[in-house]
């Protein structure tokens, strides 16, 4: 027998068979020992029974040796028992061969019955071996006989007992009272093997009664009077009961191993089916392709007519995502939560089986058309979250049982894992795409930044050279340099604003302001640029009484960005219209242009950082693509919203800013009175700046504005200068060599004679942390580079008069 066949036999029979626990010579030692015990018992009974029943007890040794050792030790016990019985208990004693015909028959009968016992004891092994020819033919009969109901088993036991008894009675004229129990031992063994202990004991009682009534003298008496026959009857009962117990135990082992084999085969089949489903999840498939492939295998594994996967769209509904077995299925069909079979599965979140479906209860139309009569479904759950419902259907009622439901649950678990994996891969892919897009945007932005910075820098440099070479062109050259310097300042401001907004470091200084005034200032700021583009501008605003709670500087920045953007993307002769309207508690400002418009696919991305409609090489419109991002974030910080609409390329665009309008009462309470203009006075200024060009240009500006200015270039020199002549205002650069501006401020504040000096920090850093450090060091105000001449003049004049509340930051 091959190793595979042996393995199957061990699985089917030998897992709990005691014979498999004994190996080698130990089995034969047990066979010899069992014969020895039977010989000792027979020898002890010899004074009572004489030469009658010389082999009866040796049957016990045969059964025991076969049970524990297998067929070969059983035959060893058979031969040894035959030799011991003949030599010691058959007349003439101590002779190897019997001389009387009756003893010869007894010996032959013993060998025959003993062989039958060995063969019967091992029949379970042969029949349980599914790979053998005999097993493949007789196994069904064998197992069904073992699993027969009690009535059949008892009837079988009675029939075997009656056949054995009648056979022995029929031989009574030939054998007389010799061998009264010779056929009962194999009859008991087979009865116990097929029927169990109950039918075997019943057979023992029937055979005992028939023997006492028809064979043992005096015939016709229920109970034998001969003491020798009484002893023989007792031996028969003992041996037969022992054989019945062993046979019943053997039957129980066979049934247990059959159940184990059946369970193992079912588990193996389930594993195979689940593996076919799991194999579909190994590839890198999209969700739709994955679900279709899994449903194909689920349909095949469960022998279903249709398989359906519904995914959960929300708490209120499911959607048909994939179907196999119904070509006309309505993919995307919506099932409200709790309705129909799939809705019930989603609601109860456990497996549900309908074995006989009423058509009106089927909610999916393609299942109704198929006349599905059995449904089984399981929820697809991951981490306690319902992902969907997996269900199968059959046109045969009662099709799905526990095994199919269990397999469907396993498939649902694997689908949940696969859906999680696909979702995770999709999320990773989106992150990769986002990172790639961000990286591309960064590269494009750096390229744009270089372009946008080089152009004005080149213009400034050329203008300075031209002014130095030709005095007649100096005024025009300086005007060009001023415009390009303002452009550089705006670019830097936009970059700083993006950094502050994205990091959440923008602080609004809100007050009640007139919206018309804010929009008007923005229009005046960009009017020169709009006119230089050849664009016609019209402004039609609502009444000046409409006020909003806003930071006027930041809100003006929003409208400047939007107006500049509208003019930038409008051709010569185009129009930009600015209007406003009251909308209940809100006010909306519309900025409509007749420019190049926005493509539909670009509309969702128009607010993205560095996003621009124009990506051409000439960069005719310029800019860094951050103005709209800044505008939207600032509007949102004010609690408003900004939207855009365009009919497409070449059809212009409209931006709408919507803000909450203040009630009339709040407007009245927060109405601010205009301040009278005070005449400007000359102020003594000490400028501390280590950069020579910056120091010289700032000194020139302040002097041209009428102020008295001294400039020094490091911290120690600044302390000597302020002590020598106390100024009204000290403008101190933070990044000084040797002693930084913070230390200069601290030392000034430590000198009581300098208590009235107003300290202004001059720095290129404008974060909240930078302002906090400046105020902690003793500065009164924080000035962010670069600063215009108008802002510088106004600040110094106001500081000298003490009109502003501290702290203040000017940018």
Give an overview of the whole structure.
This protein is α/β, with parallel strands linked by helices and 811 residues long. 56% of the residues lie in helices and 14% in strands. The strands form four sheets. A six-stranded antiparallel β-sheet has the order 3-2-1-6-5-4, with helices on both faces. A six-stranded parallel β-sheet has the order 15-14-16-17-18-19, with helices on both faces. Helix 25 links the parallel strand 18 and strand 19 (808-810). Helix 11 (227-279) runs antiparallel to helix 12 and helix 15 packs antiparallel against helix 16 (474-502).
Topology (SSEs and partners):
Layout: H1 3-14, H2 25-49, H3 56-69, H4 71-89, H5 101-128, H6 133-146, H7 150-170, H8 172-175, H9 184-195, H10 197-214, H11 227-279, H12 287-302, E1 306-314, E2 317-324, E3 334-336, H13 340-348, E4 352-354, H14 365-370, E5 374-382, E6 385-394, H15 402-469, H16 474-502, E7 511-514, H17 515-532, E8 536-540, E9 547-550, H18 552-568, E10 575-583, E11 586-593, H19 627-637, E12 641-645, E13 653-660, H20 664-669, E14 684-688, H21 692-704, E15 708-712, H22 715-724, E16 729-733, H23 741-750, E17 758-763, H24 768-777, E18 781-784, H25 789-801, E19 808-810
Helix pairs in contact: 1-5, 1-11, 2-3, 2-4, 3-4, 3-5, 3-11, 4-5, 5-6, 5-9, 5-11, 7-9, 7-10, 9-10, 9-11, 10-11, 11-12, 11-15, 12-15, 15-16, 16-19, 17-18, 18-19, 22-23
């Amino acid at each position: 027998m091959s190793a595979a066949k042996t393995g199957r036999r061990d699985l089917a029979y030998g897992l709990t068979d005691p014979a498999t626990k004994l190996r080698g010579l130990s089995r034969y030692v047990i066979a010899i020992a069992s014969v020895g015990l039977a010989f000792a018992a027979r020898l002890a009974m010899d004074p009572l029974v004489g030469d009658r029943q010389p082999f009866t007890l040796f049957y016990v040794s045969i059964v025991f040796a076969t049970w524990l050792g297998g067929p070969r030790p059983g035959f060893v016990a058979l031969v040894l028992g035959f030799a011991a019985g003949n030599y010691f208990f058959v007349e003439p004693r101590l002779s190897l061969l019997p001389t009387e015909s009756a003893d010869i028959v007894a010996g032959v009968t013993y060998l025959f019955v003993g062989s039958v016992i060995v063969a019967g004891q091992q029949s379970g092994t042969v029949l349980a071996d599914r790979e053998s020819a005999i097993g493949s033919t007789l196994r069904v009969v064998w197992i069904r006989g073992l699993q027969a109901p009690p009535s059949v088993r008892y009837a079988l036991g009675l029939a075997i007992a009656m056949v054995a008894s009648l056979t022995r009675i029929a031989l009574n004229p030939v054998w007389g009272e010799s061998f009264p129990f010779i056929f009962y031992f194999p009859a008991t063994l087979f009865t116990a093997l097929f029927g169990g202990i109950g039918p075997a004991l019943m057979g023992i009682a029937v055979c005992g009664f028939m023997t006492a009534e028809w064979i043992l003298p005096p015939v016709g008496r229920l109970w034998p009077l001969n003491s020798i026959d009484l002893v023989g009857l007792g031996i028969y009962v003992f041996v037969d009961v022992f054989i019945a117990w062993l046979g019943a135990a053997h039957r129980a082992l066979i049934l247990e191993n059959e159940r184990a084999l059946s369970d193992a085969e079912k588990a193996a089949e389930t594993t195979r089916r689940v593996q076919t489903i799991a194999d579909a999840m190994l590839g890198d498939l999209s969700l739709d392709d994955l679900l279709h492939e899994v449903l194909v295998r689920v349909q095949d594994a469960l022998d279903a007519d249709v398989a359906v996967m519904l995914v959960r769209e929300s708490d209120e509904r499911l959607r048909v995502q994939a179907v196999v077995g119904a070509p006309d299925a309505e993919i995307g069909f919506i099932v409200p939560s709790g309705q129909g079979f799939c809705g019930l599965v989603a609601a109860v979140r456990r497996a549900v089986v309908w074995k006989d479906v009423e058509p009106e209860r089927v909610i999916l139309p393609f299942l109704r058309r198929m006349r599905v009569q059995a449904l089984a479904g399981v929820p697809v759950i991951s981490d306690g979250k319902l992902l969907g419902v997996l269900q199968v259907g059959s046109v045969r009622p009662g099709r799905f049982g526990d095994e199919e439901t269990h397999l469907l649950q396993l498939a649902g678990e694997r689908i949940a894992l696969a859906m999680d994996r696909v979702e995770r891969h999709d999320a990773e892919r989106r992150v990769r795409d986002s990172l790639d897009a961000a990286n591309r945007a960064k590269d494009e932005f750096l390229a744009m930044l270089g372009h946008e910075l080089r152009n004005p820098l080149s213009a400034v440099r050329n203008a300075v050279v031209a002014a130095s070479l030709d005095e007649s062109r100096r005024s025009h050259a300086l005007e060009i340099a001023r415009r390009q310097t303002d452009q550089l300042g705006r670019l830097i401001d936009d970059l700083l604003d993006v950094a502050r907004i994205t990091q959440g470091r923008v602080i609004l200084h809100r007050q009640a302001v007139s919206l018309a005034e804010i929009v008007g200032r923005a229009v005046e700021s960009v009017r020169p640029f709009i006119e230089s583009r050849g664009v016609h501008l019209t402004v039609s605003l609502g009444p000046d009484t409409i006020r909003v709670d806003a930071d006027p500087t930041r809100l003006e920045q929003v409208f400047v960005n939007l107006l500049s953007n509208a003019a930038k993307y409008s051709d010569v002769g185009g129009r930009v219209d600015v209007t406003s309207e009251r909308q209940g508690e809100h006010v909306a400002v519309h900025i409509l242009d007749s420019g190049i418009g926005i493509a539909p696919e670009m509309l969702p991305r128009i607010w993205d950082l560095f996003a621009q409609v124009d990506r051409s090489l000439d960069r005719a419109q310029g800019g860094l693509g951050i103005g709209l991002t800044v505008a939207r974030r600032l509007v949102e910080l004010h609690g408003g919203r900004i939207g855009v609409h365009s009919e497409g390329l070449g059809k212009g665009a409209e931006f709408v800013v919507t803000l909450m309008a203040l009630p009339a009462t709040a407007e009245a309470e927060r109405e601010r009175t205009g301040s009278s203009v005070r005449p400007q006075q000359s102020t003594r200024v000490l400028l501390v700046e280590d950069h020579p060009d910056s120091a010289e240009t700032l000194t020139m500006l302040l002097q041209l504005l009428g102020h008295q200015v001294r400039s020094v270039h490091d911290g120690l020199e600044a302390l000597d200068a302020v002590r020598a002549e106390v100024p009204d205002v000290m403008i101190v650069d933070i990044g000084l060599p040797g002693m930084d501006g913070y230390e200069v401020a601290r030392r000034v504040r430590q000198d009581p004679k300098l208590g009235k000096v107003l300290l202004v920090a001059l720095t290129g850093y404008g974060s909240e942390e930078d302002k906090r450090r400046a105020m902690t060091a003793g500065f009164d105000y924080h000035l962010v580079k670069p600063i215009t001449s108008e802002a510088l003049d106004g600040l110094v004049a106001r500081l000298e008069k003490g009109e502003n509340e501290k702290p203040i930051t000017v940018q």
